[in-house]
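U., I forgot to send this yesterday:
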Amino acid sequence: MTEAAVTEAASEPTSYKRRMIGRVASDKMNKTVVIEVVRYKMDTMYKKYVKVRKHYQAHDENNEYHIGDRVEIMEHRPISRHKRWKVVRLIERAVTE
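Result:
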């Protein structure tokens, strides 16, 4: 590895903020979307995987995401009482008929 490549890799900023992928459950608020994140958690008693759903309010500056869109959210500084997440990118647009 060359010396330039080593210094470039060392100076690259790393983000330790959590990221999650979920679906937009509600877009009724201004500049805010509600994201539903589904994950599978091992049940302590029965030792089976159970589906766990959780809702997060995320900041959407331009009101560009709508119900059904798959998006990625990232941890952010507190924006309001419940908003601590920000929508980073669109993964898949909802199917419209």
